[in-house]
Design goal:
heterodimer; A: alpha+beta; Uridine Diphospho-n-acetylenolpyruvylglucosamine Reductase, domain 2; Uridine Diphospho-n-acetylenolpyruvylglucosamine Reductase, domain 3; Vanillyl-alcohol Oxidase, Chain A, domain 3; 3 domains; seven-stranded antiparallel sheet; five-stranded antiparallel sheet; B: alpha/beta; Fumarate Reductase Iron-sulfur Protein, Chain B, domain 2; Glutathione S-transferase Yfyf (Class Pi), Chain A, domain 2; 4 domains; five-stranded mixed sheet; four-stranded parallel sheet; 25 helices; 9 strands; globular; electron transport (chain B); metal-binding (chain B)
Chain lengths: 471, 454
């Protein structure tokens, strides 16, 4: 419960219609895209501008009340569930493109802008913003920055962090800071911009971003290759990179995913394939054609069972259907779908997929894997039922083993979804005790009272790491 | 695809609040669990787009339903309002990765709310009059038609409008009255009989679902539907004992009444032994095509309702997929400039019957016509059954935004496939039209008038 004086202050700052503490608003902001997590906030505010955000933060820091900033709440790590109560701040009203600078090729935007709306807008002007998380039709630029979202184009074009040049943010104290700028070079002190990107709302509230835009590629070609041998597919991925080709998209689906997708979309996929690679290259037409031909030869050399190159855009769309259907097809199998993002060096993909399959068998759970092979970012996806605690426990054990396996292969516990609540108990496995204490030190400087998104990133207790038996 | 494992498991909670108890009883808990809260439905939802607040979205409404069922919140007035705020356009269903049957959930929620109503006396009276007294009864509908016709033609309407009497009604009802078409007691059977032969070798025998409002307010469209079907090679029968589809009842939480009507229709059409059951109103068709679900708890009707549902098809889809499509030509335009035509989807035709492309294909086949796709044609116009009467504010806000897109097409004709949308679009053109003459027509009427009668 908030103190009446604080409620009065917040109402005063945003106006009565943009402050809510009725049961409907509290329930509707008690969850995000993460399964099985729910906690009610004490209030919800919808600020209109940076000054209001600053005033809200000043009020909350006086009363030491937590603040959870969020966009559309589509993240998968529990990043915006208000586990310690407090005030949820929805950024949807701050959704303007403030400036498009055609001389510097930059955009200045507010955090509540829907990513796809932004992309549609600038593409109509002949520009390109590559980060394309699957949630982009609903997720916001601010949310993408807070989580450092990736997407299908990460391998060639990088992720959100590579396109944020500058930020305006409000600290826990209410102080407004500006970092970076319309600058391609800037080494004035520590890189606070990069520090805030991916900080999951635990260091500051992002209120504005300066984004880098690039010229769009002139053409694009799409191909699909199927493999009976998982290692053949994995070697193909490495061989493509070794040949100094960086495809725009290099996506992977394993056999359990192929089966589910075919059952769902009736594509007539051969069910005895161990892997499908979906590959796209973009750039100037001659290079694209040359690259696709080279990739085709590599696929054949690595014993691909079949290779199809799309001759037209329609055919390309058809080839893309299988990969695009993966999540939907899996989500329809069982009531609860848990999508993780363990990531390994791309040379270790085959090993990782086999480990995931072994782990799924060990715990008798269903896990299918698809993902971004080019950057080693896999999405092992468990289909289960939240109402069955015994099965959920086995799923959790399986994911624990999967995180451990990823680390053993030189990988990480999360490639693009963030730590949030879900992976907090495993963060120390990746960054070590000294890494955690360094990060906690940074947190203390930005947010001494721990009112910004408390309960995220740092776990109360790190999971004891079990040493896995190979075999 | 492999069918989803549905356990039907519900939490064991003894709710003291009777409405909460009813909601837990009636809501399909599997569907509530299937919502994984990814948020992909948010950009598809008209009320979310208008307001930008989470409770006004399908994900939000499902979370509210589940919270009440789980005992996390009381079903207060705000909850009740929120359930009624949904247009029921079901644009959230095609974009849902998990295939959550949101339309069923909202109907179940409203069904529970109707068991514990808080309607004011006049609303209660109106609901009883229309849902129980008028829609289900063909003869009463006809006399309503006669009364309305009398009202419209006797000069009473002129008197009512002239005297300022209409000003006694709320503004949005005055607006509605203005755009009501001329009613008739001469329905499609009175005009054409119960059997209409195919032109040429019959492709199939089809039964027309004439609808209740359609046959009183848009009897001409029903007549044109039959003639167009015949022209395309279908023998058409019109079972005289058919009744209202029950859609308005189902969407308003009167599920038992809807089921009663469904049983009558299933029986009547089954006797006709037809290949297809043709609808020309997306709103009706969408419920007809889900009769199997509506009656799924009734073992005795399982087989017959499945038979019925599998045969329901919109006229546009039937023409495109199986008909001998006749040549259409727009001769009205004297110049060689093609006439610009645009199309507003009926939400239920597109999202439930999944017939979005067929109407457009048909329009594009008309000679001397340019089809101009409207921006966001797939978004609800705000009519949504009786939504524009019960939620006038939101409906008019949605309509205003819709009309910006309509006007931007510069079309001479605005076509649609459902009586509710048709009236709403007429209202839109009257209130927000850009001055030049734009005609709003049912797709069937537009096509029929452009048949090349050789």
């Amino acid at each position: 419960m908030l103190e009446p004086a604080l409620i009065a202050q917040l109402r005063d700052i945003v106006g009565d219609t943009h402050f809510r503490d009725d049961p409907e608003a509290l329930i509707a902001h008690s969850y995000d895209g993460t399964p099985m997590l729910q906690a009610k906030p004490d209030a919800v505010v919808y600020p209109a501008n940076t000054e209001q955000v600053s005033a809200i933060m000043k009020a909350l820091s006086t009363y030491k009340v937590p603040l959870i900033s969020r966009g559309s709440g589509s993240n998968l790590c529990g990043g915006t569930v208000p586990v310690e109560g407090g005030v949820v701040m929805v950024m949807h009203r701050m959704n303007q493109i403030l400036e498009l600078d055609m001389e510097n090729l930059t955009a200045r935007v507010q955090p509540g802008l829907i990513t796809a709306d932004f992309i549609n807008h600038i593409e109509a002007l002949g520009l390109f913003y590559p980060p394309d998380p699957s949630s982009m039709r609903i997720s916001t630029i601010g949310g993408n920055i807070a989580e450092c979202s990736g997407g299908l184009r990460g391998l060639k074009y990088g992720t959100t962090k590579d396109y944020v040049l500058g930020l305006e943010a409000v600290l826990a104290s209410g102080e407004i800071i500006r970092t970076g700028g319309k600058l391609m070079k800037d080494v004035a002190g520590y890189d606070l911009t990069k520090l805030l990107v991916g900080s999951e709302g635990t260091l500051a509230v992002i209120t504005e971003a300066t984004l880098k835009l690039i010229p769009p590629p002139q053409s694009k070609m799409t191909m699909l290759a199927m493999f009976r041998d998982l290692y053949g597919a994995a070697r193909t991925v490495s061989a493509i990179i070794e040949a100094k080709i960086i495809p725009a998209t290099l996506e992977f689906m394993d056999n359990p995913t192929i089966r589910v997708v075919d059952d769902f979309a009736k594509l007539g996929l051969p069910l005895d394939m161990e892997a499908i690679l979906l590959i796209e290259q973009d750039g100037d037409p001659e290079t694209v054609e040359r690259d696709i031909e080279l990739i085709r030869q590599i696929c054949m050399r690595e014993q691909a069972d079949s290779v199809q190159v799309a001759a037209t855009r329609e055919e390309a769309e058809r080839l893309l259907t299988a990969r695009r259907s993966a999540f939907t097809a899996l989500a329809r199998l069982r009531p609860t779908t848990i999508l993780e993002d363990a990531t390994v060096p791309r040379s270790k993909i085959a090993d990782m997929v086999l480990r995931i399959n072994e782990i799924a068998t060990k715990y008798n759970v269903t896990i299918a894997t698809f993902g971004h092979a080019g950057d080693g970012n896999l999405h092992p996806t468990a289909t289960t039922d939240a109402r069955d605690p015994e099965e959920i426990h086995r799923v959790e054990q399986a994911f624990e083993d999967i995180f451990a396996a990823a680390l053993e292969l030189g990988g990480t516990i999360t490639g693009e979804h963030g730590v949030g609540i879900v992976k907090a108990p495993y963060l120390e496995w990746k960054v070590g005790a000294s890494g955690i204490s360094l990060m906690k030190g940074i947190k203390d400087v930005f947010d001494p009272d721990h009112i910004l998104n408390p309960g995220k990133v740092f776990a109360k207790e790190t999971r004891k790491r079990v040493v896995l038996q190979h075999g | 695809m492999a069918s989803k494992v549905n356990t039907g498991k519900k939490p064991q909670i003894n709710h003291t609040n009777p409405l909460a108890h009813a909601l837990l009883e009636k809501l399909d808990y599997d569907q509530l669990t299937n919502c994984m809260r990814c948020g992909f439905c948010l950009p598809a939802c008209p009320t979310f787009r208008e307001t930008g607040v989470e409770p006004e979205s399908p994900r939000g409404r499902i979370a509210l339903m589940k919270a009440v069922a789980d005992g996390l919140m009381e079903p207060d007035d705000m909850f009740r309002d929120q359930m009624n705020h949904c247009l029921g356009c079901r644009a959230c269903e095609p974009v849902c990765p998990a295939d959550v049957k949101y339309g069923q959930l909202i109907e179940q929620a409203r069904d529970a709310l109707e068991d514990h109503p808080v309607h004011s006396l006049p609303v209660k009276g109106m609901r009883k009059l229309f849902f129980k007294g008028v829609f289900p009864h063909r003869s009463r509908l006809k006399s309503l038609g006669r009364t309305m016709k009398f009202y419209q033609q006797s000069g009473l309407r002129r008197v009512a409008r002239g005297s300022g009497m209409m000003k006694l009604f709320p503004k949005h009802l005055q607006d509605m009255e203005r755009i009501l078409p001329d009613a008739t007691a001469q329905g499609v059977i009175e005009q054409l009989g119960t059997v209409y032969p195919a032109k040429g070798t019959p492709i199939a025998r089809v039964a027309l679902f004439r609808g209740c409002i359609m046959d009183v307010m848009f009897a001409g469209t029903n007549v044109n539907t039959v003639k167009l079907l015949a022209e395309a090679g279908f023998e058409v029968v019109i079972p005289p004992e058919q009744v209202c589809c029950g859609a308005l009842h189902a969407h308003s939480g009167e599920l038992d009444l809807a089921r009663d009507l469904a049983r009558i229709n299933v029986r009547v059409f089954k006797e006709m032994n037809v290949d297809y059951i043709v609808s020309n109103a997306g709103g009706c068709g969408a419920l007809l095509v889900e009769y199997d679900h509506l009656l799924h708890e009734d073992e005795a009707w399982k087989e017959q309702s499945a038979w019925f549902a599998s045969r329901v098809v919109d006229i546009s889809k039937l023409l495109v997929e199986h008909g001998r499509i006749p040549a259409f030509r727009d001769g009205a335009s004297s110049s060689s400039e093609p006439v610009v035509v645009t199309y507003q989807d009926s939400c239920h035709l597109r999202n439930v019957m999944r017939s979005g492309t067929e109407p457009r294909q048909l329009i594009s086949q008309v000679a001397n016509v340019t089809f101009q796709e409207m921006k966001e044609a797939d978004r609800c116009c705000g009519s949504a059954g009786i939504y524009n009467v019960t939620q006038p504010e939101m409906a008019s806000q949605i309509l205003e935004h819709k009309m910006e897109n309509v006007n931007a097409t510069g079309a001479r004709y605005l076509l649609t496939s459902n009586p509710g949308c048709l009236m709403q679009m007429k209202l839109g053109v009257e209130k927000h039209g850009c001055g030049e003459a734009m005609e709003v027509q049912h797709l069937v009427d537009f096509l029929y008038e452009r048949l090349n009668h050789s």
